[in-house]
Design a protein that fits this description.
With about 110 residues, the chain is mostly helical. The chain has one domain: Orthogonal Bundle (Multidrug-efflux Transporter Regulator, Chain: A, Domain 2), CATH 1.10.1660. About 70% of the residues lie in helices and about 10% in strands. The protein has 5 helices and 3 strands; from the N terminus they run αβααββαα. The protein starts with a helix and ends with a helix.
Length: about 110
């Protein structure tokens, strides 16, 4: 999956998510059970669909547990503290994208 696809997509199947994070799908299912912050939707077939917010949380869990060597119990505490900051960043990014879109529309009207 290319970096551009990752940026533009809003939802990812479990295979795509595991490829992005760099862990097997079974690890994602394990983390889903142990971290209440991860709440993938499920389609009619029962397949997990991860949002971009879920992907960001998974990346943070992977970074803390694999790169920093933090135990999973402590990772859960750190991730829950950062959830408020992540929500604020996501909200700000969305506002900036909306503002950019409005500016582009205004530019088209002026031309």
């Amino acid at each position: 999956m290319s970096e551009l696809e990752t940026i533009t997509k809003k939802y990812f199947k479990i295979g795509e998510a595991s490829e992005i994070i760099g862990v097997p799908a079974s690890t994602l299912r394990f983390w889903e059970k142990n971290f209440p912050q991860i709440k993938p939707m499920k389609n009619k077939k029962g397949d997990r669909i991860y949002s971009t917010k879920d992907i960001e949380i998974l990346k943070e869990i992977h970074y803390l547990s694999h790169n920093k060597g933090v135990r999973l119990a402590n990772v859960s505490k750190k991730v829950s503290r950062n959830a408020v900051q992540t929500d604020a960043r996501v909200f700000l990014i969305q506002q900036l994208r909306d503002f950019k879109e409005k500016l582009l529309k205004l530019k088209e009207q002026l031309e």
